[in-house]
Write a structure and sequence with these properties.
This protein has four helices and six strands; from the N terminus they run ααββαβββαβ. The protein has 150 residues and is of the alpha+beta class. It has one domain. It has a six-stranded antiparallel β-sheet with strand order 3-4-5-2-1-6. The chain starts with 6 loop residues before the first helix and ends in a 13-residue tail after the last strand.
């Protein structure tokens, strides 16, 4: 990967120790760093599930108590849900009141939703392609950030 985000940009909104620990300890969500500028985006923890049919989407959403696209409460955790082509995207951000940043509370929401995915065996639908995005901060894309963390 040639075009990496700078360390300064990656850690602009979150302390490195916190962010790296969150990333290491979530299983299905990925930390997606905002592109910034005119993109009007923010940082988020994102997970995508792949599906093959409308029936499968309905089944997945029903299991976890999601009514459709938009803000949903999943196990009392606020989550933005988008249905796109062949995937359902779950985005968690802004629990601290700033919709452009992630916080400890957002991380905790990820952990609770991941437990629900495990409970209903939904982890088998996880879309790993998200890790190919340059702004996905992961061990695969930015191994140098994780060298001193175990």
């Amino acid at each position: 990967m040639n075009n990496k985000l700078s360390r300064l940009w990656i850690f602009q909104n979150t302390q490195p120790i916190n962010l790296i620990n969150w990333i290491i300890n979530i299983k299905y969500f990925y930390f997606i760093r905002a592109i910034g500028g005119h993109a009007n985006d923010g940082d988020a923890f994102v997970c995508e599930l792949k599906f093959n049919s409308d029936d499968q989407v309905s089944s997945i959403l029903k299991k976890i108590g999601v009514e459709g696209s938009g803000y949903n409460l999943i196990e009392n955790n606020k989550c933005w849900v988008s249905i796109k082509d062949t995937r359902i995207e779950f985005s968690i951000f802004g629990a601290n009141g700033n919709l452009y940043e992630v916080s400890q509370k957002d991380y905790e929401s990820c952990k609770k939703i991941e437990s629900l995915f495990d409970k209903y065996d939904l982890h088998k639908y996880i879309n790993l392609d998200i890790e190919n995005q340059i702004n996905c901060i992961s061990k695969k894309n930015y191994p140098e950030l994780f060298e001193n963390f175990r």
